Amino acid sequence: MTSQQNPLSVHKKTNQSLQGVYVSGSIPTSTAELLDNAATHFGDKPFIVDNGRSMSFSDLSTDVRALACSLVAKGFRHGDRAAIWAPNCAEWIIAALAIQYVGGTLVTVNTRYKASEAREIISDSGSSVAFVVDEFLGVDYARSLAALTIDGLEHIVTIKAPSSSDRDGISEWIADGAAADDELRRQCAAQREAVDADDVSDILFTSGTTGRAKGVVTTHGQNLKAFTTFADILGLDADDRYLIINPFFHSFGYKAGWLAALLKGATVYPMAVFDVPAVLDAIKTQAITVMPGPPTLFQSILMHPELDPGRYRHLEEGNHRRCCNTDSAHCRHAPYAGDRYRHHGLWPVGNLWSGHDVPSGGFT
């Protein structure tokens, strides 16, 4: 079935079907259903490429279900909350989906927070489990958090630092869950079947600039409907290779990032820390086709001495222009912004949140 033309889309396949894993035409009711559908539909296709490791949609489903079983074995029930305090990595996605798979609520924690600030988020949210990176930016996050008293927190599960070869707590939990007995698997399956569109999916906290951070609560149905629309407008599909620099603790990296990619079957490339040479290398070696970010990110790239515009033209394939910024000023002053980015093979795609978009013919 061919989808109707979307007047906001800049995708080269506007008049073709942009279906993802909702092949029947209906959007999944939960991320649990989305994951199961994606594993069936995309199978061995790579979903995550992280530090040289490739994980398929099927592999992701296997690890998520195993980790979910371990959570249930530890007494994690429908409606319970679990936090993640870690940089962009495959384990972040596995943990998030496992929490939601059995009806839990994901709580994201800013990786730039100090342990005392993370404690406030974890305590205020009532999280009983926290998945925490062992070392990042020169700080042992897990150890610093373990040194604090946090009411209600029962388990701190370590995630190894990027590029580390050490075994971590989350790997052990996945291994334990993979060896679950039939009774535990039945309980896990029962909790998964109980998850529906109206269940709370996540709580993302504000920065707390003018006071104590406040949690924003969203449901499975809200997220999946909103970011299916977002992915359709962006023109994301299973052929895309999506470099995610925006942090997973923020909606930009989480929902507009890997969740949108999971909906459409795209492959994601998480980046833990923004580094221009690493970004340029990834774009070139991985033939990245989608790379959203704020204007300052692109400014840093444009000003870098290693930038060679001729090497990055795969970001500009016909009307497939998805090098996105989030500053509406780039919509209001489109000719200036377009000329500047276009000269370097980078195409801004308007304001991600208002739905404003570059015309299909580009700037004139």
Notes on the protein architecture:
Helix content is 38%, strand content 14%. The chain is an alpha/beta fold. The protein has a six-stranded mixed beta sheet, with helices on both faces. Strands 1-2 form a two-stranded antiparallel sheet. A two-stranded parallel ribbon has the order 9-10. A hairpin with a 2-residue loop joins strand 1 and strand 2. The N terminus and C terminus are likely disordered.
Question: What's the gist of this structure?
Answer:
This protein has 364 residues and is of the alpha/beta class. Helix content is 38%, strand content 14%.
Beginning-to-end CA distance, first to last residue: 33 Å
Largest sheet: 6 strands, mixed
What is the average of the pLDDT values?
81
Question: What is the count of β-strands?
Answer: 12
What share of residues is helical? 25-40%
Strand content: 5-15%
Gyration radius over CA: 20 Å
The general outline is globular
Number of helices: 13
- Helix and strand composition category: alpha/beta
Poorly predicted segments: 1-18, 316-321, 324-364
Side by side, the strands of the main sheet go 6-5-3-4-7-8
The string of secondary-structure elements, in order, is HEEHEHEHEHEHHEEHEHEHHEEHH
